[in-house]
């Protein structure tokens, strides 16, 4: 669930709250995730117009391998996958 509207501009901010089937919440913002508070990453999302639609590319840069592994262990991949599935649902509804 997008809790705060994203600012669609360079340097904009956002906040996502993902809930799993058991009701556990995983919160992420433009600078950190609650799974590893104080550890930040840079995430760049690019939308590119292509024939027949839009290409979405996301790149995450971590401060260290340990941060990457820690965020992965905290469930970041699960949250990112859920975000992409929700985005795909929304795109399908609009299409």
TrEMBL record:
The species this protein was found in: Streptomonospora mangrovi
Name of the featured protein: SRPBCC domain-containing protein
């Amino acid at each position: 669930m997008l809790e705060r509207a994203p600012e669609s501009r360079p340097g904009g901010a956002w906040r996502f709250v993902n809930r799993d089937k058991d009701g556990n919440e995983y919160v992420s913002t433009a600078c950190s995730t609650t799974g590893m508070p104080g550890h930040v990453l840079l995430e760049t999302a690019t939308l590119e117009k292509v024939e027949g639609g839009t290409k979405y590319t996301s790149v995450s840069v971590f401060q260290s391998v340990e941060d990457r592994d820690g965020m992965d262990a905290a469930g970041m991949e699960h949250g990112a996958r859920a975000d992409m599935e929700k985005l795909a649902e929304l795109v399908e509804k609009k299409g």
